[in-house]
């Protein structure tokens, strides 16, 4: 089954059916408000079309996955900003994260008229690919529409960057995703800068540390800007707007 569906004119884009498990997609019961995935039904996307005579419209869905660790212990830590970005997108777009499938917490909805699948892997950071790989394969989402969101120590705190593709940069979660995608790296990513450990501080301790009050302000601002950037990417692709976004982000803390 594919998330890609033919659109019918006149109504805003939406999914009309719950997610469906596959033989490769783990399913389990959870307490309310999470819901179990039930029997197969066809997913339909309908959208407004200026000229009904123009014929059917197809929207290629996006899978947007934030990397992080599940549990309150890791909430608000540097390594979990990917989760925070997905939560922020879900809130802004009115998408409820209430489905468990393939070791992930999912939310199904749309950005504009484009269907999106929001994903928070529950397999822990270093095994993120075990959740994302099967989901991308099961819903037949092309790699060019699999957006990974994760923390990046190579960027200053609160600085964002969107790329069409790239390596793993020694990020264990990203590396595992690449491994589960048979070594392919041609998927977009939104990296969120968290800065470097000060002095001789252990990297793991730094990643699992919460932000200072000043850093928190920068991250919250970055999350707001990230939602706008993701919306632009989903609706317009890698346009000049994304290039300008990256340039502004690169120099946003530089003082003239």
TrEMBL record:
InterPro entries: CRS2-like, Pept_tRNA_hydro, Pept_tRNA_hydro_CS, Pept_tRNA_hydro_sf. The keyword Iron-sulfur does not apply. Keywords: Transit peptide. Belongs to the PTH family. It comes from Panicum hallii. CDD domains: CRS2. SUPFAM superfamilies: Peptidyl-tRNA hydrolase-like. PROSITE patterns: PEPT_TRNA_HYDROL_1. This is Peptidyl-tRNA hydrolase. The keyword Phosphoprotein does not apply. One of its GO terms (molecular function) is peptidyl-tRNA hydrolase activity.
């Amino acid at each position: 089954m594919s998330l890609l569906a033919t659109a019918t004119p006149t109504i805003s884009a939406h999914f009309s059916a719950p997610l469906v498990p596959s033989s490769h997609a783990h399913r389990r019961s959870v307490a309310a408000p999470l819901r179990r995935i039930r029997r197969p039904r066809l997913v339909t996307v309908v959208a407004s079309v200026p000229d009904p005579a123009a014929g059917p419209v197809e929207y290629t869905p996006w899978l947007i996955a934030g990397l992080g660790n599940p549990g309150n212990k890791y909430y608000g830590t540097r390594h979990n900003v990917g989760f925070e970005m997905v939560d922020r997108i879900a809130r802004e777009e009115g998408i409820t994260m209430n489905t468990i499938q393939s070791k992930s917490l999912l939310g199904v909805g749309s950005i504009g008229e484009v269907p999106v699948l929001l994903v928070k892997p529950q397999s822990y950071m270093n095994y993120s690919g075990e959740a994302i790989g099967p989901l991308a394969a099961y819903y037949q989402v092309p790699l060019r529409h699999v957006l990974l969101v994760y923390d990046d120590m190579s960027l200053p705190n609160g600085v964002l960057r969107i790329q069409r593709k790239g390596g793993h940069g020694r990020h264990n979660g990203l590396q595992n995703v690449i491994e589960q995608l048979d070594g392919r790296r041609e998927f977009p990513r939104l990296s969120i800068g968290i800065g470097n450990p000060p002095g001789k501080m252990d990297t793991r301790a730094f990643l699992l540390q919460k932000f200072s009050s000043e850093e928190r302000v920068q991250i919250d601002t970055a999350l707001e800007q990230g939602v706008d950037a993701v919306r632009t990417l989903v609706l317009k692709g890698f346009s000049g707007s994304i290039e300008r976004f990256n340039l502004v982000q690169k120099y946003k803390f530089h003082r003239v």
